[in-house]
Specification:
Elements lengths: L15 H16 L14 H11 L11 E6 L2 H22 L2 H7 L10 H4 L2 E8 L1 E4 L2 E4 L3 H18 L3 E2 L8 H6 L6 E10 L15 H4 L5
Antiparallel strand pairs: 1-2, 2-6, 3-4, 5-6
Helix pairs in contact: 2-6
Length: 221
Amino acid sequence: MAKDPFVAYAQKTYSGEEMLVRSKSFYAFMNERRTVREFADRAVSKEVMENILMAASTAPSGAHKQPWTFCLVGNAAIKKQIRMEAEKEEFESYSGRMSEEWLEDLAPLQTDWKKPFLEIAPWLIVVFKRAFEEVNGKKRQNYYVQESVGIACGIMIAAIHNAGLCALTHTPSPMNFLTKVLSRPDNERPFLLIPVGYAAANVMVPDLKRKSLKEVMVAYE
């Protein structure tokens, strides 16, 4: 049985001191990232967005199946339709689907069912996870789909921040309307809806504190 080809790999490495500086500066840079819900009506080039999505697509995935589709939406009519459908679901959620505990947890963020950012942000990225593939008329399984797409979205969020842009990870529930609005095939399931653009002027964000190292890490040395 013939083996699939391999190619030589070389990664740039750094001294211990430079590694420490780079890791610390990257943490400081990422720690500046914040979610925003108010966007400026300011254009962002499609090429920038394409680079962001290609960065996301460098993510590792189960058996290298790359089980994601990134729908990049800039069309105003489609954005309006997505907003209308999302607000229908969000109204139902805030009006009865969400538990009292859930609503209490959301209260400090001052969110509600209205989602104007879905029209104002210049771009929406609708992430779909690919449950399986159709190859020569047969179903081929994808592996660790949830994990793979989640990692890709994490890299995407870092790439958006690196480009000097802001994003919001929006999850209207249920999200099946996105499949219909965007005419996606049966093997795709909506995963995440991400408005991307510049923050609105004088935007305010909740005064949140991230967990400390002691709260998120357990070391075994």
